[in-house]
């Protein structure tokens, strides 16, 4: 065989089979999708880390509060945990085992949780200093907006689109109130990370709370 022909033959590689090429492209696309999904979940999980911590914010320094206010901190903390545990993810609700709920089931879980949170804030607020009351008033107003949005929402997506601004503002104000109260009591005002909704925490049953009479 001539030298030039030999060099060509030795360096020649057949083109990849169509199936192999498609598989490589598919794997590459899948890797990108998975990476984006992981990043998205991480961002949202960080945003939903606590009630009051839905977006990065400056934290306030604690102020003096009386020990007599602590039972009301515990009450609102439990109500916040309860609400957070049933909060839909982008309008989609999940049960304690990660199974997707129907819109009716989601709505039926949210309604009493919002009502309990509203009544706990409303009854507890007068027992705190004025700076805390101001933040709780903002949170309370937005909880009430959320209840109205829930009553008229046609589905989870409709609720998410209309209630997101109130949710964000209410949680921020609740977080400021938690900052002001600080660690004076047995629990902080803000909700626990362990009650975050699926898929951001281990599935747990919604907490039971008793609203103020």
Question: Can you offer a commentary on this structure?
Answer:
- By secondary structure, the chain is an all-alpha fold.
- It has two domains: 3-40; 48-195, no CATH class.
- It contains six helices and no strands.
- It has helices spanning 3-11, 18-47, 70-86, 103-124, 130-152, 156-181.
- Helix 3 packs antiparallel against helix 4 (103-124).
- The longest helix has 30 residues, at 18-47.
- It is globular and about 65 Å long.
- Residues 5-9, 34-54 and 203-213 have low confidence and may be disordered.
**What value does the average pLDDT take?**
79
Q: Give the strand tally.
A: 0
- The helicity comes to 55-70%
Could you name the ranges where pLDDT drops below 50 across 5 or more consecutive residues? 5-9, 34-54, 203-213
Question: What structural class do the secondary elements suggest?
Answer: mainly alpha
The description of the largest β-sheet is: none
Strand content: under 5%
| Count of domains | 2
Cα-atom radius of gyration:
25 Å
What multimeric state do the chains show? single chain
Report the end-to-end length measured between terminal Cα atoms.
99 Å
Elements, N to C (H/E): HHHHHH
| Shape estimate | globular
Total helices: the number is: 6
């Amino acid at each position: 065989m001539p030298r030039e022909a030999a060099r060509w033959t030795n360096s020649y590689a057949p083109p990849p089979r169509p199936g192999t090429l498609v598989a490589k492209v598919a794997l590459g696309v899948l890797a990108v999708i998975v990476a984006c999904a992981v990043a998205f979940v991480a961002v949202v999980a960080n945003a939903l880390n606590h009630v009051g911590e839905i977006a990065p914010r400056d934290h306030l320094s604690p102020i003096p509060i009386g020990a007599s206010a602590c039972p009301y901190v515990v009450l609102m903390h439990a109500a916040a945990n309860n609400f957070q545990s049933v909060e839909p993810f982008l309008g989609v609700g999940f049960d304690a085992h990660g199974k997707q709920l129907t819109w009716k089931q989601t709505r039926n879980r949210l309604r009493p949780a919002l009502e309990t949170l509203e009544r706990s804030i409303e009854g507890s607020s007068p027992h705190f200093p004025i700076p805390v009351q101001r933040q709780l008033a903002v949170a309370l107003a937005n909880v009430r907006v959320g209840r109205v949005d829930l009553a008229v929402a046609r589905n989870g997506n409709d609720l998410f689109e209309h209630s997101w601004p109130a949710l964000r503002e209410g949680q921020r104000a609740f977080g400021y109130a938690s900052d002001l109260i600080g660690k004076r009591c047995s629990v902080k005002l803000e909700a626990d990370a362990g009650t975050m909704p699926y898929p951001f925490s281990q599935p747990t049953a919604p907490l039971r709370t008793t609203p103020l009479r």
